[in-house]
Write a structure and sequence with these properties.
Structural class: alpha+beta
Radius of gyration: 18 Å
Oligomer: single chain
CATH superfamily of one domain: Jelly Rolls
Number of helices: 9
Helix content: 40-55%
Shape: globular
Strand content: 15-25%
Distance between the termini: 43 Å
CATH class of one domain: Mainly Beta
Order of helices and strands: HHEEEEEEHEEHHHHHH
CATH topology of one domain: Jelly Rolls
């Protein structure tokens, strides 16, 4: 079950010892989520960081009864309200499975213990934080500087599985356009 996450960490930390890996693996928990089930809720502290073994997850919040999508996550990606996870403050957004999803979860307290007992995981934590920062900086830049059509092209380039696995109304929400406008964008791109 931990083959994908083990491979992920071996790529991130080439010198990962069997002892350190086992200490990490001993703290992991496998969770199953049905399509539509929340992994975590807005306004509650997020204690878990999840590695998606199988499935798809959206990050969202609800404003005036309307769901706004911030990102999509698929296999071999980490998902969490990372700000809440780090600050121990209530989350700004929720996480929801849009397919039946299996995650491998690590609790905040367990991660802190790993940092103390196996400092090699501090490197992994730093690398994960840097990747999160880069992703957020690019997303903010994209929202401020790019037109929806360009953001759609970038989404397809970065996460091509969106086309087959994500309902178009969620993609439209992510882009900040109506489903009808997304349909027109898709037609222009396919010409």
């Amino acid at each position: 079950m931990f083959g994908n996450i083990h491979h992920f960490f071996l790529q991130m930390i080439p010198g990962l010892t069997d002892e350190a890996w086992q200490a990490f693996a001993d703290r992991l928990q496998v969770k199953q989520y049905s399509k539509g089930e929340e992994l975590s809720s807005a306004e509650r502290v997020n204690h878990i960081i999840s590695f998606i073994e199988q499935g798809a997850v959206i990050a969202f919040n609800v404003v005036d009864g309307k769901k706004h999508i911030y990102n999509f996550f698929f296999e071999r990606e980490y998902v969490s309200d990372y700000e809440s996870f780090l600050t121990r403050e209530p989350a700004r957004y929720g996480l929801e499975a849009i397919e039946d999803t299996t995650t491998i979860d690590l609790h905040y307290n367990d991660l802190q213990q790993l940092y103390l007992s196996h400092p090699v995981f501090e490197r992994a934590g730093r690398m994960a934080a840097e990747a999160q920062f880069i992703r957020l900086a690019r997303q903010i830049s994209s929202l401020l500087a790019e037109k929806p059509e360009e953001r759609y092209r970038n989404l397809l380039r970065d996460k091509p599985q969106v086309l087959q696995r994500v309902p178009q109304y969620l993609v439209a929400s992510y882009l900040g356009v109506t489903p009808e406008a997304l349909s027109r964008i898709r037609k222009r791109i396919s010409l």
